């Protein structure tokens, strides 16, 4: 008999599916949140009978359980821990620890891809095309490689995972991995994925109009309140407002704060760290401490949201030497234009002293300092006509 304790996200559940495929009814699979694994391990160690082999995937245990597992192992107990998180690398000191963050080819791993390899190498599961395809989708989602590769199927797999209960998802996938020769979504899944994607799009459009910006600890943050779709939201808002260093997403009910960035010059795990949290370079989170509450909520509550740039313009467009017109909430008008190879800004026809080496640099300055937006064509044309009249 086997007992598998795994994480309750897509990668963790991917491990559960592989274990079911390999061991069938001889494995008892339990999914855990980060907070509940140590309780489960402790319970297992106090209540197991000698026959059961314990496998832990996509998570690692605290120091107390680490010692107890080593004692369990050294007295003949069967245990295997398979993980891909940097923070778990020290488990490689044990015979029963197998932690790999990146494989020999420099490819980032996931728990599902590591367990798959483990099961194949130990001749507990045969590799098939459909299982390999599924494992790769999970790996790309978990490591965010899907985004770089624009692998929408990987993203959709995770969306489907959240639409169904874990049991429903597991049952559907196990059947598919057993019986199909390639990976696919069925018609019903395609339909609910389409509906969900349309819903996410509407949600993001609404949230785009609620974003406020604030300079916090020397970095420019876009701040938005949202309970769901944090990854999609962080990504879309980051692209819409590239002058912001990162997006902070507030979940008031959960008293949590998430950070996302699209920029390579920003490491949001460091930002989360200043509030006692952590995570990855591009995505991280922290608990809403009093300090974070003050900076992100109290100090920004009265701010007006950013206005989006006009999207369908033909004349007032960005990055033209002739000029692009912006406006801010106090009604001031700005022009960004090129002159003698440098980029300049006029505010109400008065030139700023600074010049900029690129359009982006000038626009970032303008947006950070004045929260200005690209004006619509109508107002731009009207403005130019007035200029002409004045000259005559
Ligand atoms: Mn994982």
UniProtKB/TrEMBL annotation:
<dbReference type="InterPro" id="IPR038763">
    <property type="entry name" value="DHH_sf"/>
</dbReference>
<protein>
    <submittedName>
        <fullName>Oligoribonuclease</fullName>
    </submittedName>
</protein>
<feature type="domain" description="Oligoribonuclease NrnB C-terminal">
    <location>
        <begin position="323"/>
        <end position="391"/>
    </location>
</feature>
<dbReference type="InterPro" id="IPR052968">
    <property type="entry name" value="Nucleotide_metab_enz"/>
</dbReference>
<dbReference type="InterPro" id="IPR058608">
    <property type="entry name" value="NrnB_C"/>
</dbReference>
<dbReference type="Pfam" id="PF26386">
    <property type="entry name" value="NrnB_C"/>
</dbReference>
